[in-house]
TrEMBL record:
Coiled coil: none annotated. InterPro entries: DNA-dir_RNA_pol_su2 (IPR015712), RNA_pol_bsu_protrusion (IPR007644), RNA_pol_Rpb2_2_sf (IPR037034). Its EC number is 2.7.7.6. It is an enzyme of class 2 (transferase). The keyword Transferase applies. It comes from marine sediment metagenome. One of its GO terms (molecular function) is ribonucleoside binding. The keyword Ribonucleoprotein does not apply. Residues 121-142 have a biased composition (Acidic residues). One of its GO terms (cellular component) is DNA-directed RNA polymerase complex. This is DNA-directed RNA polymerase. Residues 31-360 form the RNA polymerase beta subunit protrusion domain. Keywords: DNA-directed RNA polymerase, Nucleotidyltransferase, Transcription, Transferase. It holds the Pfam family RNA_pol_Rpb2_1.
């Protein structure tokens, strides 16, 4: 059986005859602004809830009182306008917002959970034989203490001044809190509390026009050729403009700058998809193949890798090898170099490593006594916002991932990354 090749001529005629029909069918189905609308729909449906989940609770801690507020269950009903001078709310169409110079937005309401934990009037001083005399249910007591510890941890991360240095995630109880008996938590819940106002994109899932037929949209003052995809701010049309930028949240290994005598650098711009907050972290190896450093946010000089890992509680070769995940003899030699650089005359412990980093803090006007707490906040709290509310250990392992990619290039196991 012979195979007869198809002629290119009918194919060319088919393309010419149907090309514009295919384009027309696509735009009839999706419109010109679908990329804008899909993005904002995802924000309305998932992004707002994700932001509330990733943000830590608000905690205020006093010697005998812990006050905690958490936000949950976001609700975005749709475009609603508050009449000025009148305590009235009513729905509005985009056409009316244009004429009256109003913002086409929706109130964002949340459920607020308020937790109050108070101490007993007098601290309880426990001795070795007093545990059996405490008349309290064990489950309630453990649950209360767990809630207290969790609230304190959130407060420490949120405020650098309250941060105490942890050694390998072991915390000691402060003297003024030792032996305190806590009452059962008092929890109050408030529903549909307005948190903010969110602009509504025209023709999005929260827009009133999305449920109208073409004829109904015309009846409500809209142009039949208007595809939406923009906002109305004080009656004026505003659109999100797309832009090209370097990729975020990915480690890129490239050649170092010759003027800084760097052989290779591993860079990452970490950005939270919810808040937009971003920081840059760089790992580098010098041209002499011996000096390995980190460039951290808010720190004005390069810091030896060993000092940074020691500040985070990683001190031995075995610990760092497990963090980086490279076990070849050549890789272990570099890891030994990193650990060796962490042992300096002024760096003998985790606390002294924090103090070493604090010398290079880019914080003008800060007192010397405040800089160590600021440095700890940088290395433990400011790194990698794209991880969300990550644990201490997760950030250590992500630093190890950066070093691993750098060493793989240095050892010849992988090539440089193409930024394009």
């Amino acid at each position: 059986m012979s195979i007869v090749p198809l002629s290119d001529e009918p194919r060319e005629q088919l393309d010419k005859a149907h090309l514009w029909k295919i384009f027309q069918s696509h735009y009839d189905q999706h419109g010109l602004a679908r990329h804008q609308i899909d993005g904002v729909n995802d924000f309305y449906e998932n992004g707002i809830a994700s932001i509330l989940r990733d943000e830590p609770d608000i905690v205020v801690e006093k010697p005998n009182l812990i006050y905690r507020v958490s936000l949950s269950d976001p609700y975005l009903p749709g475009p609603t306008v508050m009449e000025e001078g009148l305590n009235l709310k009513s729905d509005r169409d985009p056409a009316e917002c244009r004429l009256r110079h109003l913002t086409y937005d929706s109130p964002l309401t949340v459920t607020v959970t308020e937790t109050i934990i108070e101490a007993e009037e007098a601290p309880l001083e426990l001795s070795d034989g007093d545990e059996d005399q405490v008349e309290e249910k064990e489950e309630d007591r453990e649950a209360t203490e767990q809630l207290v510890d969790e609230s304190r941890a959130i407060a420490k991360v949120a405020d650098a001044k309250d941060v105490t240095y942890k050694k390998k995630e072991a915390e000691t109880e402060s003297p003024d809190q030792a032996g305190v008996r806590w009452k059962k938590p008092v929890v109050r819940t408030y529903t549909r509390v307005q948190l903010a106002k969110v602009p509504i994109m025209l023709r999005s899932s929260r827009c009133r026009l999305s449920g109208y037929t073409p004829d109904e949209r015309i009846d409500h003052g809209e142009d039949e050729w208007d595809h939406g995809g923009y906002f109305l701010i004080r009656g004026r049309e505003r659109v999100l403009v797309a832009q090209t930028r370097a990729i975020y949240n990915k480690v890129i290994v490239k050649k170092g700058k010759a003027d800084k005598k760097l052989k290779y650098t591993a860079d990452i711009r970490s950005m939270s998809e919810e808040t937009g907050h971003s920081v840059s972290v760089t790992a580098s190896i010098a041209e002499d193949n011996r000096i390995l450093t980190f460039t951290l946010p808010y720190i004005k000089d390069q810091i030896p890798m060993g000092v940074v890992f020691r500040a985070l509680g990683v001190e031995t070769v075995d610990e760092l090898t497990d963090v980086i995940g490279l076990y070849t003899p050549k890789a272990v030699r570099y890891i030994r170099t990193i650990v060796r650089d962490g042992f300096r005359a002024e760096v003998r412990s985790q606390e002294s490593a924090i103090k070493f980093i604090s010398k290079y803090c880019n914080q003008s006007g800060a007192k010397e006594s405040e800089k160590p707490a600021y440095a700890w906040q940088v290395v433990d709290g400011e790194l990698f916002p794209h991880l969300g509310v990550a644990t201490h250990k997760e950030k250590i392992y992500f630093l190890g991932h950066i070093v691993k990619k750098l060493l793989l290039v240095q050892l010849g196991f992988r090539s440089l990354d193409n930024r394009d």
